[in-house]
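Box 4.2: Ligand-aware structure prediction
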Amino acid sequence: MSYSLHEKLKGLTPYEPVAGTFSVRLDANESYLNFPDWLRMELYEIISTFDFHRYPDVTAKTVRERYASYYGIDPDLLTAGNGSDELIMLIVSALLGKGERVMVIAPDFSMYGFYSRICENPVLVLPKGEDLTIDVDEVIRKAKEERVRAVFFSNPCNPTGQGLKREDVRRLIRSVEALVVLDEAYMDFWDQSLLSEVCDYENLIILRTCSKAFGMAALRLGFAVANPVITNALRAVKSPYNVNALTQEIAAAVLKYPDYIRACIRQILQSRDRLQEKLTELFAGKPDTRVYPTCTNFVLIKTPLSRLLFEALGKKGVAVRELNGCLRISAGSEAENEAVLTALSDCLKEGDKTI
Ligand SMILES: *Cc1c(COP(=O)(O)O)cnc(C)c1O
């Protein structure tokens, strides 16, 4: 007997976030705000009486209700996932047929294409133009021409930071004969969500996450929001105990404080604005360089020095993301922003031997 892995797994390696030890981490678009003490006290209470010996609620009812209430939507339209990441894999593996084609618009969140390839669904990659926005007419045309069965994209987009206006997203959904997976992971930082009208479409799934604006990346909690037909299907195919009970209870407790969450988002946006402004000043006049506008909690900079700066920052203990000739920097605390700006400014100074 001999066994060897399937062809499609050749060359795949386990996901590694930016490796190494860093004093400042602005590489993963997390919230820079950790839970305050008053909130932790409540969480200790939860743990002190927690039923560790019981399986979690299959439908994650309480946390779904509180999350839906934050947005004023119907909790029955939500399916909870172990991060929205799990939901992406679930959609690709269970809602698409064998070999059906998926379209992504690059650059975008890499997991859409990644899971599609693992599930042996061919991926059609439509490139974005110089300004990194989505050309909706081109998406519609290509989706029809290539008969794709699903279109995945993030809005606002990670890693570009660009947003597509509601009216354009509506037109896209209505014009393609495919499932549209609209990943609103960063929509808490912008105002063009389609959550309230999800039932107007038979081909729409909106993904949301608690990992970014809500500051709960450690807990792994995301939601798929869709009409009852799609929601039924998602709940039928998901792993029954996909969201652990501790995550459900802790997130439900945090969601009792919507004003606290809104205040965190305002704070993150202030940090983002400052970072954006300072980076624009810092890179002003540099050749072939562009600091993009942003609808998210991070800033994208195109620079021929991206690789060198990424490495030089790493040596100074500052983690950012380098993607294809760009740096992506998440908004941090005042001290963290200061650290990355100082480090960048030092690197950019003429005569600096590190770059
Ligand atoms: C971070 C991110 C996610 C992942 O969210 P999880 O809920 O933590 O799995 C999904 N989509 C985009 C675009 C992201 O940037």
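In the box above, the bound molecule is pyridoxal-5'-phosphate. The first strand starts at residue 24 and ends at 25.
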